[in-house]
Amino acid sequence: MLVALLVVATPRARAQSGNSNQQPAGGGTISEPATNRKPPAKTSVPKSPGTSKSARTRPKSAATAANVVVPIDGKWWTSGNDFGTSAVVFTQIGNDVSGQITYADGRTGNLTGVFSGKRLNYTWANSAGDHGSGWLEQSWSNFLGGTWRGQRTTNGSWTLNRIEGNWCFGGSRTRIRKVTHNARGALRLVTEDGEIEEGHLEGPYIILEDEGLSVKGEIYYKANRVDFVATGTYWTWCGR
């Protein structure tokens, strides 16, 4: 049976309710609605028999977290572990990933893998005849880490940092540093004024060099930022 319910708001209730007819925070006035207008009557609608709440609210897409594509394409820097100092350029098409490795000592290599969730399972080979397999997990947008194995290594580690791209000085998008680096860790950045500065990468640190002075910045992955403690300044990641 359908039951008609008539609801009339009192002046006090209308004054206390948050709606678009109140004065905006930025100033100005908005005309008040007619007070003698009655709201339309609400009609209750019976639930369809045999339909559970979960069935009514279930999203149409059956996608799970494992199917969400997380982009890792671009250049990454690795050092300070037993895989070897190198730069890796990932190319990603959907969940399929290929990578070109350039080692600091001149070797080259490649890898192929599949990215599922936030983990890349891959196989690799290099110009020295080494080959193996491993996995990398993306804990934060600028950090990949995991284990690998080869002919002579059964439980190696591999950590990669995404350094190349745009970094905002002090978090300001009007002060962007465009940073690039090579496989040996030599770093070059261009400021918003077009000034060129140089430095190098040292594991999880960025070392800026200016007129014989070095300023050390520590990469804080969880916040996607670099802190320069000595100068009290910082960069935040602005993308590529």
What is the class of the largest domain in the CATH system? Mainly Beta
- Could you state the CATH homologous superfamily of the largest domain? Calycin beta-barrel core domain
Helix content: under 10%
Q: What's the total count of β strands? A: 18
Look at the helices and sheets and give the structural class. Answer: mainly beta
Shape by Cα distribution: globular
Main β-sheet: number of strands, strand sense, barrel status?
A: 8 strands, antiparallel, barrel
Give the distance, in angstroms, between the N- and C-terminal Cα atoms.
Answer: 61 Å
Outline the low-pLDDT stretches: 1-35, 51-66
Radius of gyration of CA atoms, rounded to a whole number: 28 Å
CATH architecture of the largest domain: Beta Barrel
Biggest sheet strand line-up = 3-4-5-6-7-8-9-10
Number of domains: 2
CATH topology grouping of the largest domain: Lipocalin
Provide a quick synopsis of the model.
The chain has 240 residues and is mostly beta strands.
Q: Can you offer a commentary on this structure?
A:
The protein has 240 residues and is mostly beta strands. It has 2 domains: 67-161, Calycin beta-barrel core domain (Lipocalin); 165-239. It is 5% helix and 48% strand. It is built from 2 helices and 18 strands. The protein has an 8-stranded antiparallel beta barrel with strand order 3-4-5-6-7-8-9-10. The model is unreliable at 1-35 and 51-66 (pLDDT under 50).
